[in-house]
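Notebook, p. 212. Picked up where the previous page left off. The plan for this session was modest: take the two constructs that came back from the sequencing core last week, fold each one, and keep the raw output in the notebook itself so nobody has to go hunting through shared drives later. Recording the first one now, exactly as returned: residue sequence, then the structure token string.
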Amino acid sequence: MLTFGHLARHNARNYPAKTAYVDGDRRIDWARLNERACRLAQFLLAAGVARGDRVASISCDCIELVEIVVACAKIGAVRVGVNHRYAPPEIAHILEDSGARVVFVQAALAGHLCEIAPDLSAAPLLVGFDGPHPFAVDYEAALAGHPSAEPDVAVVVDDPGYLFYSSGSTGLPKGVTTTWRQVIDSLCHIALNEGSGRGDVWLHTMPAGGIPLLILLRAIYHGATCVIMRRWDPEQACALIERERVTRTLVVPTMLVSLIHHPEVRRRDLRSLRQVIYGAAPCTPANIRLTMEVFPGVEMLQMYGATEATGMATMLFPEDHREALRTGEHDILASAGKPVPYMDVVVADEHGVTVASGEIGEVLIKGSLVTSGYWNAPQLTAEAVRDGWLHTGDLGRFDERGYLYLVDRKKFMIVSGGYNIYPVEVENVLARHPAVKEVAVVGVPDPRWGEAVKAIVSLRPGRQASETELLGFCRSRIAGYKAPKSIELVDEFPRNAVGKLDKRTLRERYWADAGRRIGG
């Protein structure tokens, strides 16, 4: 059974001069990447890191991050992902929770470690890289001081290989335990479904502290090439697609919207792009149609899954997108697709009993890729994984054709005057307005109804719409009790560490305001 340590060695032997990763002006081939990963693995062994020990990294996505992941795989160390966008208290929590023995720190982020280091109960070995840093050990010096021989370490593929910390939408980040086997199997299944291969050039756009690491590792699995974007910028994305002849990318819908509406997309030669994969939320029919217009011949594919399921559980395939646009059945585009063959997905009631098509319940996932549990959190594990079923906390329904529609997170359901209202349903209506760029619907305190529906909306550049117009648009298309009682126009939304709209922060703002008014 393979790990990414074996795969990197395989690529070095078979495609030594092929470009593996592009990071700004830097390029590295498979032979050089594997050699550096071996030196890094030898350094970790010399530092006393053993199989099962945790090794963390705090950095933007870069070539060094890939080397760290491969080095850990070569010696059976558990890679701990720390999203560089996390605040220092969140980073401190992850390092404490994981018990990381070594932490690799990008120089630009050294201040985070200096701030939290005095509060850590155990002092990890800190290794700095990518510029001047205050740490005793330097990354390049560590590589230069150790041999390039492959480490002689037996890695057990069913051991934990990765700790993927969740984005913390329900509190502090939780460490999801994932084995070497699960990550490889996940990429194998995804590759079969998306059709990617060795000839592809991937544009990597999402921070690999958590489960998006799988996107960064696709190149290792295939022996392909990956172009790393350290920070999302639609103009730079256009330039990289043209320069590197990118064939595939995975984005969240907000990234896609900023890309297809950017003027550079019409000026560049972007014909190499064959597939756009998106996740985290549905994409509106208008934006899907525009994507297929500005990227002629491109296939669109949506994935839905969970960190606790090592990635993907359902998929809306390219043929689904084409058929929906051809027939005008645009409701299909609001779905998360159908379950993939290797995962069982059901919608169940509060007792775990599967409900009928059309009925709303919690989405449960079962399969070999479901996590064995959260790191150091048996109670949370018992709540989330029961009889092998992952309770995702997502509310959804299946239609009679087998498409899964996500209604919302359980905790975001609005109860107003005794009615259950699902924000996604309201969001989907407002998203159809031609001036609306992005929308979030939350429940806010209401003295009469308990909660009232509030929509927060950002508009497309150059478009205008008033609160009255948007309220009327919504009320003409949805039941009155579901329609927003108020709409707030904003320029930007709060986002979490992986770039998703942070509805929890948005919602808490209104409840905190209510608490202050009551307290005053």
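Okay, moving on. Second construct, recorded in the same format:
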Amino acid sequence: MNSLIPVVLFSLICSATCLAQSAPCNTKNYCVGAEKREITAPPGFPTGGHGPAGNIARGSWSRNWARAFVIKDTAGTVVVLVSCDTFAVPLNLTSHVWDNVEGKLKRAGLTLKPEGLLIAATHSHQGAGNYMDTSAYNDFGSVKGGFSGALFNFLVRQISDAIIKAAENMVPAELHLHQAEIKTGYDEPFLVNRSPATFAQNYDAGMVLSELGDFAPDSDKACPEKHMPGEPEDGWNLDKCPRLRAVDRRMLVLQAKEISSGQPISDLVFFAVHPTVLIHNAPLFNSDFTGYAMDALERKAHNKLVAAFFNGAEGDVTARRFNRDVLEVVERGEQFLAGVETTVRSKPEILEPRILVSARLINTRSSADRTCVAGDIIGRLAKSPLVGAAQPGGGELDRTIFFDFGWRTGVRNFQADHDQGGKKRAIDVPFFKPLTDLISNLLFPSRLSVTYLKLGRFSLGALPLEVSTTAGYRIRKNMESSGEVFQLLGLTNGYASYLATASEYAAQDYMGASTLWGPNEAEFFRCQLVRLRNGGPTPEFKLPDTLVGLRDPFNAAIIGQKRDLPDEELEEIIRDKGHMPVRQLPFSEWSERVPNRDKYTAASKRRIWITTTTGEIVDDTDVGFIKILTQAPIGDCQVWNGIWLGPLFKERPAVEYVFHVQTAKGDELTSYPFRVDLNSSTKPSPQFLKGQPSCNEKR
């Protein structure tokens, strides 16, 4: 035990001195540092966000990341922004991360107040679930309920480490704000509104369509003609085409450029869209099309850049989804990447090196906290959160089995009560309403964080919600009335479902049914941001200090018995351009021992790449491979398969190729040479790796 003392002391000294020796920041500019850490969960965890329509992950396609940015102004004010490839970020996680990093940053001369830490989710539904701080999202946000303390702690460690390393990398930098609109017009429709009829019920729907900057169709047929097979049939004949036009195409990129070299350090991309192109039942972790674009940006910069996606008012907006396979994810990723690159080429505004940040923590169980007034904006929260009947049925194109049994749009109560309007409870037991109210209060969060952050003339309003296009538009109009460039930052420092306008709420579709605190909730949060912007007195911001259990009910044993081939059950996502399953992709197979204590770090060490027999690298990208288990482990022995997707994306020359695999232990294995033949009619066989020890053998 005593032998550990020098190691611990060295670690503590290094954590302080390494930070203290980072680049000097007493300049006339910002100081910025950026870093990322992998947060891909091990196999056996449910994917989070699709609820009962999701799946259990048997492996991964690409990786999930936490990307951290530390920014300091000339007065010493520090803010940290983190983007996580997850469906949500519980407030309790933010609290634990702050506890981890605050002292280390302070020893290095960086004072990070609780309100200065913003951890946001990209809202990929192909990250792990079951690490949330409320029962509703642990029990109903995934296909299998439960809470994993081990996963929660893994996320805290990885995010904390990314922040500390970002602080070590800080250099004097300028912040450049770029703005552009991407994929405008009907020739290249990139986004759709998944609730066009609901959007149309807003009294200001026409104004929103006009000011979002897109043009109206020149004929009644123009909108329906854009409908593609695989998309919903309804909503294309509505006047002025809200299906394609009720989206915010504005993209903002906040780029940090190092003063000494002029090279970009980081790209923070702000845009409003559900990154849910891959079909909901895919049994793989990945970061969807926005993650593809961020990975590509970093790869083009030879990993000298950290690029992150931050989501906006995406409550009713998705990318267009026809086939929902890997080819479509890559196609949307390339479109999104082109949009980012176009935005970065626009003339930037150089931001004044001045940071302002303020925040409020709303206690939904306090009557004093549930009402907000700011000028003519009056908003209030219902006493108890309530889920409407349409919520269990799922959103458009992501319906659950409950949809066919009546949990769908338009199911309403005949009586408006409990400040919840005509919302009909998802589970309605009339004689037990007090009990259901009590249960709702226990299921959902009682502390909601609201943050206003200003970097020069650029401001962010962070909410723990998925905000509709119209609700976001109204907030932005208020906030930009003072001359700032405002961006709503959703899914940040907590998660409390959706935020619909009162008119959208009345429709009681999936979004309205998921707006938990009643029809005036959107006005309440608009009011809160305006009050923070106006600089009125706010109570001290304190993150909640809640203990989290240490249970870990998930493991790869859930995967079950061996599949015949590694691509079994992937027929919906591995398809060619004709939408037919592709069954002849090359795959490798290897086994390795992964002790339970190492399973959370294993994914970050495991790599696959392809070369020719002469050693020329053909494909070393994460998006080029699916890494998957075909069966449950035997003890700590795991049999892995690597499926090479490269021949699916483009035709490959008729030469011999070699698989290379780096295992979780760091061993490098190579296969015998092989050729690609997607037209073969024989059963595929694995490309075995030479000289690998088998952990399948009995010992």
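Notes on construct two before I forget. Confidence is low (pLDDT under 50) at residues 1-17.
Flagging for discussion at group meeting.
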